[in-house]
Amino acid sequence: MIRQLLYRSGQLCEFTGSDMAGLLRRARDFNAGRGIGGMLLFHDGLFMQVLEGPAAAVDALYARIAADVRHCEVRLLVRTERAAALLPGVPMAWAETPPDGDAPVFPRLENDRRALDLLARAGGDRIATAMRGFLQGAAVPEGGLGCARVAERVL
Ligand SMILES: Cc1cc2nc3c(=O)[nH]c(=O)nc-3n(C[C@H](O)[C@H](O)[C@H](O)COP(=O)(O)O)c2cc1C
Fold first, then answer.
1. Domain, as residue range, for 108
2. Residues 84-122: pLDDT tens digits?
3. Separation of CA 155 and ligand 1 centre (Å)
4. What does the pLDDT read at residue 62?
5. Domains of the chain: total
6. pLDDT confidence of residue 12
């Protein structure tokens, strides 16, 4: 069994393209060395990330990420065990979808098509459903900044 953990948070500082590229590069190195995989999503100043891998390693990484001062309102949405990873063999995939009419904030970072395909094919899986919804600007469950920002835009 592997641990699967889903959280969402809000961007606190403005990340430049090279900040985000560096974050992803370091994350991929770190995660690959510990058998952790997953995907980081960005939409309208908000993050959602799934982490998958050995339970102790995933919990320890989440504790580090949650303490990172570059984001805020970190909300754990799901922490569960499953037989196989939703996104096998992906140290940390990336996707950004800008709100309608906006340009991407990180145009040089390519969306990971393979991971997006896996999310699309995962059907009613609750994590995949939450991630697909997040990328389309759906209200994020559990309140906090994420909901407030999404509601602001809707109103
Ligand atoms: C949204 C977000 C997602 C992150 N994802 C990862 C990740 O998957 N793996 C990782 O090693 N660090 C990730 N980080 C960076 C960690 O929070 C932390 O900076 C890094 O592990 C270095 O930790 P340290 O400063 O305690 O050495 C992420 C940071 C943010 C803001």
1. 2-154
2. 999 998 889 999 999 999 999 999 999 999 999 999 999
3. 33
4. 97
5. 1
6. 86
Domain of 100, CATH number, reads 3.30.70.100
70 lines ligand 1 (CB under 6 A): yes
- Residue 4 CB neighbours (<10 A): 23
Owner of token pair 């952790």:
36
Q: Is 28 in the pocket of ligand 1 (CB under 6 A)?
A: no
Task: State the distance from the centre of ligand 1 to the C-alpha of 94, rounded, in angstroms.
Answer: 14
For residue 142, what pLDDT is reported? 58
Q: Write out residues in the chain with pLDDT < 70, as ranges.
A: 140-155
Ligand 1 centre from 11 Cα, in Å? 13
At 150, the amino acid letter reads: V
* Token couple for 141: 């469950």
135-137-140 Cα angle (round to 5): 95
Contact 78, 6 (CB under 8 A): yes
Could you list the beta-strand ranges (E) of the chain: 2-11, 37-43, 46-53, 71-82, 93-96
Which of 19, 23, 58, 134 is the best mutation target for the ligand 1 pocket, counting ligand atoms within 8 Å of the beta carbon and taking the most?
Answer: 23
Q: Tell me which residue has tokens 């309608």.
A: 100
